[in-house]
């Protein structure tokens, strides 16, 4: 009998908890110091992407069954690629940072909505996966549609997005740590 996708994700609840905490901390950093120079914001975001990507890859290695492992591995590789790009090629403008963050939000939103769809029969409260997925997807699309918004407004929205994703990640991790596969 193959384990359920929810059980595979729940088995990695400590990684989800760390991801949530990192996301929350990054959001707080940006909110507390919105006037950070672009380079510091870029490097901080790159470090966050690298850590998040490594955690996703770790979860894919620890998992069982092909579907969630492949998805987590692709998710991790995408974020590690963004981290390498961010840490090796500082942006020439805030627009570059904005486009990279928008693409990440869209990718993450699609990933989380896909996981919510896969888990819809196993979760009683699947809205905790749909909410951040939909928010990320819409936020990323809005960033691409309206890139001319003020830098401070964009930094504030990125911070709020990271805080929401972090908060929901922490809630899911704490909920899933008690999950037992039937």
TrEMBL record:
Q: Which residues cross the membrane?
A: 12-34, 40-58, 70-88, 94-119, 126-145, 151-174
Query: Does Membrane count among this protein's keywords?
Result: yes
Gene Ontology cellular-component terms listed: plasma membrane
Annotated keywords: Membrane, Transmembrane, Transmembrane helix
Name of protein: Uncharacterized membrane protein HdeD (DUF308 family)
Organism (species): Haloferula luteola
